[in-house]
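Usage example:
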Amino acid sequence: MADAIEDHGTSLWKDAWIKLSKNRLALFGLAVLIMLIATSLLTPLIAPYGYETQNLNMGATAPSLQHWLGTDIFGRDMLTRIMYGGRVSLMVGFIATAVALVIGILWGAIAGFFGGRLDAIMMRIVDVLYALPFMIFIILLMVVFGRNILLLFLAIGAVEWLTMARIVRSQVMALRNQEFVEAANSLGLSQWTIIRRHIIPNTLGPVIVYTTLTIPSVMLLEAFLSFLGLGIQPPESSWGLLINYGVETMEEFPWLLIFPGIALSLTLFALNFLGDGLRDALDPRTSKD
Amino acid sequence: MYRFAISRLLQAIPVLLMVITVTFFLVHSAPGGPFSADKAVPPEVIKALEEQYNLNQPVWQQYLNYLGDVLQGDFGPSFKYSGRTVNELIAAGLPITAELAFYAMLVALSVGITAGVGAAMRPNTMQDYLPMTGAMIGICMPSFLLGPLLVLIFGIHLDWLPVSGWGDIPGDKILPAITLGTGYAAYIARLSRGGMLEVLSQDYIRTARAKGLSERLIIIKHALRGGLIPVVAFLGPAFAGLLAGSFVVETIFQIPGLGRFYVQAAFNRDYTLILGMTIFLSTLIILFNLLSDMLAIWLNPKLRQEIRGTN
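Running the assembly step on the lines above writes:
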């Protein structure tokens, strides 16, 4: 797919990058995101303490030189726990978004490309699913099948693909009648090859934007469920779960609530700004001044 | 318009049937019966209980019975709250959640529209940047973080407002309403800014300006109606979000509403309560989505014409 991007001209992507690099908030978002990913990947190597290392004699302590973000009631280092929690939160964000991405793109591309009755049926299904209250369904799934992390990925991914399918479909509908698709058709390329080589690469812009905005909403959903005790289960950790614990002891030890809260908010902030910046950069309708 | 409304209403029926069916079979495929989590109970007792709740019948028969009951508005007894029906529990929680959602919506609409319209009137100035940055913070500050922080600041440190309850102490409704409303205020601010900016660049606004109308009159008489259509269309999804948000807010502030019942039912594995409430809440959400769609169409002459064209 990478060479397909190269094929249809670097100018759009170069142009987008120039626009994006002028947007300081979006760059800040990108920097935060890169730092987060790097930290998450390296956590087992760079975390200052062990994830489960307790020090019951010490208990909860305020931030200090030994423990930059303090310790929780079991004397566990908060920085370490936030780093491990971030790994899980980010993983949920990326995997569930990837699930949504694959389903949404395929669904939307097929519906938009073939059109007609198939399109009508497929989009009808999307409309019906849109009307369902998914938050409630995810809670129900977690109750019925136990709080399984894999199920959480699938459930969230299964919710988030609907908008993606709509976006891709409308893009594809517009592309279908362009000359280069006609040319590919007359060259005798198979329908699948045309979808893969010409349609999908050309819908990438809106897809990238929507993906960047889906990741924070997925992470929020995970944190929401974990906060209620219906998402990630201990001994696994996530930011939602840490906030949940923090609330219980916030009167005496407010930092146990505040630091995981900052981690979550800052990440959501960064991703949203990046998404907004990408939208401005990749939307061909915005003027090139 | 009416034909469209009726056809949309008719389309909601299969969706609801699907909700009932999927929920029923999901709950019934749950591993472990509803009574298995309790202490060791003699098998005779379990058998008697199963008979009482008709669990000894084949599943499809239970489904048909349940469907018949639900269509008559009867959700049956609760498994865990002995002696109370699901209907009673919903009737107890609904007014409280409705009041909470109403206040939250009030916060969201008043703050959101003021900020958004104000920002759109002077784009790319401080009057635009400040509220929009605030809106971004509001979106990135989930209710389960904002609520505890508000409690910590205004309830515990400043000791201005009560930290829990609903209608017991004066002022105990303020923090929950703000907690639930803030995120939506942020979304509404962004939507109304976008909508207003688009409308304000239209020709008919230029005409109004050329007539020499005051800016205030242009906004109120001409721009608001068109500019707020995105907000109206957002109200349906927002309502669904408010219900989900009430799960968290009612848990934080210990408010005995529908959200808290739902979360407790999830923890207690109270299957009949979960089943009944899922169906009830889904129906509400579907109806509200329908209403907000209709309202958005009614406000937008272009959409109205499209519908007339298709009929």
